[in-house]
Design brief:
Blueprint: H1 2-10, H2 14-17, H3 26-35, E1 44-45, H4 52-72, H5 78-93, E2 96-97, H6 99-122, H7 126-142, H8 146-162, H9 166-179, H10 185-201, H11 205-222, H12 236-249, H13 253-262, H14 271-288, H15 291-304, H16 311-321
Antiparallel strand pairs: 1-2
Helix pairs in contact: 1-5, 3-7, 3-8, 4-5, 4-6, 5-6, 6-7, 6-8, 7-8, 8-9, 8-10, 9-10, 10-11, 10-12, 11-12, 12-13, 12-14, 13-14, 14-15, 14-16
Protein backbone atom coordinates (compact mmCIF):
# COMPACT_ATOMS: atom_id res chain seq x y z
CA UNK A 1 0.00 0.00 0.00
CA UNK A 2 2.80 2.42 0.83
CA UNK A 3 4.46 1.77 -2.50
CA UNK A 4 1.19 2.61 -4.27
CA UNK A 5 0.74 5.78 -2.22
CA UNK A 6 4.29 6.92 -2.94
CA UNK A 7 3.95 6.21 -6.66
CA UNK A 8 0.68 8.17 -6.86
CA UNK A 9 2.04 11.05 -4.80
CA UNK A 10 5.16 11.27 -6.96
CA UNK A 11 3.01 11.90 -10.06
CA UNK A 12 2.45 15.52 -8.92
CA UNK A 13 -1.19 15.36 -10.00
CA UNK A 14 -3.27 16.88 -7.25
CA UNK A 15 -6.52 15.50 -8.65
CA UNK A 16 -5.21 11.94 -8.27
CA UNK A 17 -4.36 12.21 -4.57
CA UNK A 18 -7.19 14.55 -3.54
CA UNK A 19 -9.40 11.91 -1.97
CA UNK A 20 -11.98 12.37 0.77
CA UNK A 21 -11.21 12.22 4.48
CA UNK A 22 -13.28 9.69 6.43
CA UNK A 23 -13.44 9.99 10.25
CA UNK A 24 -14.67 6.39 10.63
CA UNK A 25 -11.71 4.84 8.82
CA UNK A 26 -9.19 5.49 11.56
CA UNK A 27 -11.15 4.05 14.52
CA UNK A 28 -10.34 0.33 14.10
CA UNK A 29 -6.64 1.02 13.45
CA UNK A 30 -6.50 3.25 16.51
CA UNK A 31 -8.08 0.67 18.81
CA UNK A 32 -5.84 -2.11 17.50
CA UNK A 33 -2.71 -0.03 18.02
CA UNK A 34 -3.71 0.79 21.59
CA UNK A 35 -4.64 -2.71 22.71
CA UNK A 36 -2.76 -5.23 20.55
CA UNK A 37 0.79 -6.48 21.22
CA UNK A 38 3.60 -6.04 18.73
CA UNK A 39 3.92 -8.49 15.85
CA UNK A 40 5.70 -11.72 16.71
CA UNK A 41 7.60 -11.87 13.41
CA UNK A 42 9.30 -8.76 12.00
CA UNK A 43 12.10 -10.17 9.84
CA UNK A 44 12.03 -9.99 6.04
CA UNK A 45 13.02 -12.67 3.52
CA UNK A 46 13.25 -10.83 0.19
CA UNK A 47 16.09 -10.49 -2.30
CA UNK A 48 17.53 -7.13 -1.23
CA UNK A 49 19.63 -7.30 1.95
CA UNK A 50 18.88 -4.27 4.11
CA UNK A 51 21.90 -2.72 5.83
CA UNK A 52 22.35 -0.12 8.55
CA UNK A 53 23.64 2.26 5.86
CA UNK A 54 20.34 1.93 3.97
CA UNK A 55 18.38 2.95 7.05
CA UNK A 56 20.84 5.77 7.83
CA UNK A 57 20.23 7.20 4.36
CA UNK A 58 16.48 7.01 4.89
CA UNK A 59 16.79 8.86 8.22
CA UNK A 60 18.98 11.55 6.65
CA UNK A 61 16.49 12.08 3.82
CA UNK A 62 13.62 12.42 6.29
CA UNK A 63 15.55 15.07 8.25
CA UNK A 64 16.41 16.90 5.03
CA UNK A 65 12.85 17.01 3.70
CA UNK A 66 11.54 17.91 7.14
CA UNK A 67 13.84 20.92 7.20
CA UNK A 68 12.81 21.93 3.69
CA UNK A 69 9.18 21.60 4.71
CA UNK A 70 9.70 23.98 7.65
CA UNK A 71 11.36 26.51 5.37
CA UNK A 72 9.12 26.34 2.32
CA UNK A 73 5.89 24.52 3.17
CA UNK A 74 4.44 21.11 2.33
CA UNK A 75 3.34 21.82 -1.21
CA UNK A 76 6.79 22.05 -2.74
CA UNK A 77 8.89 18.95 -2.04
CA UNK A 78 6.46 16.19 -1.07
CA UNK A 79 6.30 14.59 -4.51
CA UNK A 80 10.10 14.48 -4.74
CA UNK A 81 10.26 12.85 -1.32
CA UNK A 82 7.57 10.36 -2.38
CA UNK A 83 9.57 9.41 -5.46
CA UNK A 84 12.69 8.88 -3.36
CA UNK A 85 10.76 6.71 -0.89
CA UNK A 86 9.27 4.58 -3.66
CA UNK A 87 12.71 4.06 -5.18
CA UNK A 88 14.68 3.53 -1.97
CA UNK A 89 12.29 2.36 0.76
CA UNK A 90 10.03 -0.03 -1.16
CA UNK A 91 12.86 -2.50 -1.92
CA UNK A 92 13.90 -2.25 1.74
CA UNK A 93 10.44 -3.13 3.05
CA UNK A 94 10.35 -6.07 0.62
CA UNK A 95 13.94 -7.04 1.41
CA UNK A 96 15.86 -9.33 3.73
CA UNK A 97 16.47 -8.24 7.32
CA UNK A 98 16.62 -9.58 10.85
CA UNK A 99 13.98 -8.78 13.48
CA UNK A 100 16.33 -6.25 15.07
CA UNK A 101 16.99 -4.50 11.76
CA UNK A 102 13.30 -4.75 10.92
CA UNK A 103 12.30 -2.85 14.05
CA UNK A 104 14.69 -0.06 13.16
CA UNK A 105 13.58 -0.09 9.51
CA UNK A 106 9.88 0.10 10.38
CA UNK A 107 10.52 2.94 12.82
CA UNK A 108 12.49 4.84 10.20
CA UNK A 109 9.75 4.37 7.61
CA UNK A 110 7.14 5.53 10.14
CA UNK A 111 9.08 8.77 10.61
CA UNK A 112 9.31 9.34 6.86
CA UNK A 113 5.64 8.53 6.27
CA UNK A 114 4.50 10.85 9.05
CA UNK A 115 6.67 13.62 7.60
CA UNK A 116 4.85 13.10 4.30
CA UNK A 117 1.49 13.05 6.10
CA UNK A 118 2.36 16.43 7.61
CA UNK A 119 3.23 17.77 4.17
CA UNK A 120 -0.09 16.52 2.78
CA UNK A 121 -1.91 18.12 5.74
CA UNK A 122 -0.12 21.40 5.04
CA UNK A 123 -1.11 21.09 1.38
CA UNK A 124 -4.79 20.58 2.37
CA UNK A 125 -4.94 16.98 1.22
CA UNK A 126 -6.54 15.39 4.31
CA UNK A 127 -7.48 12.16 2.55
CA UNK A 128 -3.87 11.52 1.51
CA UNK A 129 -2.59 12.52 4.94
CA UNK A 130 -5.01 10.10 6.60
CA UNK A 131 -3.90 7.23 4.37
CA UNK A 132 -0.27 7.90 5.20
CA UNK A 133 -1.18 8.00 8.90
CA UNK A 134 -2.96 4.65 8.68
CA UNK A 135 0.13 3.00 7.24
CA UNK A 136 2.36 4.64 9.85
CA UNK A 137 0.04 3.45 12.62
CA UNK A 138 0.22 -0.15 11.42
CA UNK A 139 4.01 -0.11 11.25
CA UNK A 140 4.32 1.50 14.67
CA UNK A 141 1.94 -1.07 16.15
CA UNK A 142 3.91 -3.90 14.51
CA UNK A 143 7.02 -2.93 16.49
CA UNK A 144 5.15 -1.91 19.64
CA UNK A 145 6.41 1.68 19.52
CA UNK A 146 4.04 3.59 21.82
CA UNK A 147 5.80 6.91 21.24
CA UNK A 148 5.24 6.74 17.50
CA UNK A 149 1.66 5.53 18.02
CA UNK A 150 1.22 8.69 20.10
CA UNK A 151 2.54 10.76 17.24
CA UNK A 152 0.04 9.27 14.78
CA UNK A 153 -2.86 10.07 17.11
CA UNK A 154 -1.63 13.67 17.32
CA UNK A 155 -1.61 13.81 13.53
CA UNK A 156 -5.18 12.52 13.46
CA UNK A 157 -6.26 15.18 15.95
CA UNK A 158 -4.98 17.85 13.57
CA UNK A 159 -6.74 16.27 10.60
CA UNK A 160 -10.01 15.97 12.48
CA UNK A 161 -9.80 19.68 13.30
CA UNK A 162 -9.65 20.55 9.58
CA UNK A 163 -12.97 18.75 9.14
CA UNK A 164 -14.61 20.52 12.06
CA UNK A 165 -14.97 17.39 14.20
CA UNK A 166 -14.37 18.81 17.67
CA UNK A 167 -15.33 15.60 19.45
CA UNK A 168 -13.04 13.59 17.15
CA UNK A 169 -10.19 16.01 17.85
CA UNK A 170 -10.53 15.44 21.56
CA UNK A 171 -10.85 11.66 21.17
CA UNK A 172 -7.60 11.49 19.18
CA UNK A 173 -5.81 13.81 21.59
CA UNK A 174 -6.91 11.73 24.57
CA UNK A 175 -5.83 8.58 22.71
CA UNK A 176 -2.41 10.17 22.27
CA UNK A 177 -2.19 10.76 26.02
CA UNK A 178 -3.16 7.14 26.66
CA UNK A 179 -0.67 5.79 24.12
CA UNK A 180 2.09 7.92 25.63
CA UNK A 181 1.91 6.28 29.05
CA UNK A 182 5.32 4.72 29.61
CA UNK A 183 6.87 6.75 26.75
CA UNK A 184 9.69 9.28 27.37
CA UNK A 185 8.59 12.48 29.19
CA UNK A 186 9.09 14.60 26.08
CA UNK A 187 6.56 12.48 24.18
CA UNK A 188 4.12 12.83 27.08
CA UNK A 189 4.60 16.61 27.07
CA UNK A 190 3.80 16.64 23.34
CA UNK A 191 0.66 14.57 23.93
CA UNK A 192 -0.50 16.76 26.82
CA UNK A 193 -0.10 20.06 24.98
CA UNK A 194 -2.07 18.51 22.10
CA UNK A 195 -4.76 17.59 24.60
CA UNK A 196 -4.77 21.23 25.78
CA UNK A 197 -5.32 22.39 22.20
CA UNK A 198 -8.15 19.89 21.78
CA UNK A 199 -9.85 21.07 24.98
CA UNK A 200 -9.53 24.65 23.69
CA UNK A 201 -11.38 23.75 20.49
CA UNK A 202 -14.08 22.18 22.64
CA UNK A 203 -14.51 25.33 24.74
CA UNK A 204 -13.18 23.95 28.04
CA UNK A 205 -10.71 26.54 29.44
CA UNK A 206 -10.31 24.82 32.83
CA UNK A 207 -9.28 21.60 31.10
CA UNK A 208 -6.88 23.62 28.92
CA UNK A 209 -5.12 25.02 32.00
CA UNK A 210 -4.87 21.56 33.59
CA UNK A 211 -3.48 19.94 30.42
CA UNK A 212 -0.93 22.73 29.96
CA UNK A 213 0.22 22.20 33.54
CA UNK A 214 0.79 18.50 32.85
CA UNK A 215 2.60 19.29 29.59
CA UNK A 216 4.98 21.68 31.32
CA UNK A 217 5.63 19.21 34.12
CA UNK A 218 6.52 16.43 31.70
CA UNK A 219 8.71 18.82 29.70
CA UNK A 220 10.61 19.77 32.85
CA UNK A 221 11.22 16.08 33.55
CA UNK A 222 12.44 15.60 29.99
CA UNK A 223 15.35 17.98 30.54
CA UNK A 224 17.29 15.22 32.28
CA UNK A 225 16.37 12.46 29.83
CA UNK A 226 16.54 11.88 26.12
CA UNK A 227 13.57 11.85 23.78
CA UNK A 228 13.19 10.14 20.41
CA UNK A 229 15.12 11.62 17.50
CA UNK A 230 11.93 12.41 15.59
CA UNK A 231 10.88 14.80 18.37
CA UNK A 232 14.12 16.78 18.65
CA UNK A 233 12.35 19.87 17.23
CA UNK A 234 9.99 19.97 20.23
CA UNK A 235 11.88 22.45 22.39
CA UNK A 236 10.65 24.85 25.08
CA UNK A 237 9.74 27.51 22.54
CA UNK A 238 7.64 25.03 20.57
CA UNK A 239 5.87 23.91 23.73
CA UNK A 240 5.06 27.48 24.71
CA UNK A 241 4.00 28.36 21.16
CA UNK A 242 1.45 25.56 21.15
CA UNK A 243 0.42 26.55 24.68
CA UNK A 244 -0.14 30.15 23.56
CA UNK A 245 -2.39 28.87 20.77
CA UNK A 246 -4.43 26.79 23.22
CA UNK A 247 -4.86 29.73 25.59
CA UNK A 248 -5.82 32.04 22.70
CA UNK A 249 -8.50 29.69 21.39
CA UNK A 250 -9.79 29.19 24.94
CA UNK A 251 -10.11 32.96 25.34
CA UNK A 252 -7.39 33.17 28.00
CA UNK A 253 -5.60 36.22 26.64
CA UNK A 254 -3.33 36.97 29.60
CA UNK A 255 -2.00 33.41 29.89
CA UNK A 256 -1.62 33.27 26.11
CA UNK A 257 0.43 36.46 26.01
CA UNK A 258 2.77 35.14 28.69
CA UNK A 259 3.30 31.84 26.85
CA UNK A 260 3.87 33.74 23.60
CA UNK A 261 6.72 35.69 25.19
CA UNK A 262 8.52 32.41 25.89
CA UNK A 263 8.04 31.29 22.29
CA UNK A 264 8.83 34.59 20.60
CA UNK A 265 12.33 33.75 19.37
CA UNK A 266 12.61 31.03 16.76
CA UNK A 267 15.54 30.07 14.55
CA UNK A 268 15.47 31.54 11.06
CA UNK A 269 15.00 28.16 9.36
CA UNK A 270 11.58 27.66 10.98
CA UNK A 271 9.68 30.05 8.74
CA UNK A 272 6.33 28.34 8.99
CA UNK A 273 6.54 28.22 12.79
CA UNK A 274 7.24 31.95 12.85
CA UNK A 275 4.10 32.59 10.79
CA UNK A 276 2.07 30.35 13.12
CA UNK A 277 3.25 32.38 16.13
CA UNK A 278 2.34 35.65 14.42
CA UNK A 279 -1.15 34.31 13.76
CA UNK A 280 -1.49 33.47 17.45
CA UNK A 281 -0.19 36.92 18.40
CA UNK A 282 -2.78 38.56 16.15
CA UNK A 283 -5.55 36.47 17.71
CA UNK A 284 -4.46 37.56 21.19
CA UNK A 285 -4.62 41.19 20.03
CA UNK A 286 -8.15 40.56 18.76
CA UNK A 287 -9.13 39.12 22.13
CA UNK A 288 -7.85 42.28 23.82
CA UNK A 289 -9.86 44.41 21.39
CA UNK A 290 -6.72 46.01 19.93
CA UNK A 291 -7.69 46.28 16.27
CA UNK A 292 -4.61 48.28 15.28
CA UNK A 293 -2.25 45.68 16.74
CA UNK A 294 -4.28 42.90 15.15
CA UNK A 295 -3.97 44.50 11.71
CA UNK A 296 -0.24 45.19 12.13
CA UNK A 297 0.59 41.63 13.22
CA UNK A 298 -1.62 40.16 10.50
CA UNK A 299 0.36 42.15 7.94
CA UNK A 300 3.66 40.87 9.36
CA UNK A 301 2.35 37.29 9.19
CA UNK A 302 1.33 37.76 5.56
CA UNK A 303 4.75 39.18 4.66
CA UNK A 304 6.60 36.39 6.46
CA UNK A 305 4.61 33.74 4.56
CA UNK A 306 5.33 35.06 1.06
CA UNK A 307 7.77 32.29 0.17
CA UNK A 308 5.82 29.46 1.80
CA UNK A 309 3.81 27.01 -0.29
CA UNK A 310 1.15 26.12 2.25
CA UNK A 311 -2.53 26.10 1.36
CA UNK A 312 -3.35 25.56 5.02
CA UNK A 313 -1.50 28.69 6.14
CA UNK A 314 -2.94 30.71 3.27
CA UNK A 315 -6.43 29.83 4.43
CA UNK A 316 -5.57 30.71 8.03
CA UNK A 317 -4.16 34.06 6.93
CA UNK A 318 -7.33 34.81 4.97
CA UNK A 319 -9.37 34.15 8.10
CA UNK A 320 -6.99 36.32 10.10
CA UNK A 321 -7.35 39.26 7.73
CA UNK A 322 -11.14 38.90 7.91
CA UNK A 323 -10.99 39.14 11.71
CA UNK A 324 -12.40 35.63 12.17
CA UNK A 325 -11.52 33.65 15.32
CA UNK A 326 -8.48 31.40 15.35
CA UNK A 327 -9.53 27.79 14.70
CA UNK A 328 -6.91 25.97 12.61
CA UNK A 329 -5.28 23.27 14.73
Amino acid sequence: MLSKLWALDAMRRRSVVKSAFSPSVFGPASREALVMPADAAIGGHGQHRVTAADIDLLDEQTRLYGKLDSQHGGGKFRSVFASMMDTHATPMLNGSFSARTGRRLYGSVVDAVLAMASMAYDDQLPGLAQRYDLQAMRLAQAIGDRARITRVHIHQARLAATQGGQADVLAHARSAVLAAEGAPPLVRAYACVTEARAWALNGQPDQVVAAVKRAREFFARAQSSTGPAWLEWFDFRELEGQTAWAFAVAGLAEQGAQALKEASVLSSDRTRDTVELLITEAELARLRGDSAEHAAVAKRASQASQHLMSRRLSERLDRLKAGEPLRGF
